[in-house]
Amino acid sequence: MKEFDIIEHTADIGIKAYGANLKEAFANAAYAMFSLIAGLENVRESVRRQITVEAEDREGLLVSWLNELLYIFDVERTIFKRFEVTELGETSLKAEGYGELLDQSRHTLKGALKAATYHMLKIEENNEYSVRVIFDA
Predict the structure, then answer these.
(1) Of 10, 14, 28, 70, which one has the fewest beta carbons inside 10 Å?
(2) pLDDT tens by residue, 43-94
């Protein structure tokens, strides 16, 4: 199963991430987001960070999850390449992100993302799960 597709959008950019379950789709959405920010091939897993977010519903959880990761990247300069969503309920999410502090001598930055948005946000369940998110770039 592919992890994600890039969605071209007028002024912004988005992703559609897939998973065998919703936890995997959320994890792949985070991976897709960081792949828009930087080349992840040289990112080591020397930092493990626990992340907990809450929201009113699953759509809100997806936006909060991705925006929390963007906040950690912007403020702490930690870039993640792997994610394990350990708990996912209707209003809360717990996960671990694996990566390292940004090192511009080894990491190639591609572009900046300001925030995950609710525009065209969609969580689907058919034979597999998918989530679609547009980012304010």
Answers:
(1) 10
(2) 999 999 999 999 999 999 999 999 999 999 999 999 999 999 999 999 999 9
Q: Is the dihedral of CA 31, 32, 34, 35 positive or negative?
A: positive
Phi-psi region of 16 (alpha: psi -120 to 50; beta: other; left: phi over 0): beta
Helix axes 22-37, 58-76, angle to 10 degrees: 30
- CA 40 centroid distance within chain: 13
Task: Please state, in angstroms and rounded to a whole number, the distance separating the CA atoms of residues 61 and 92.
Answer: 7
pLDDT score for 17: 98
Report residue 132 as tokens: 């679609």
Strand ranges (E), 9-89: 13-19, 47-54, 78-88
Measured on CA atoms in the order 134, 101, 52, 23, is the torsion positive or negative?
positive
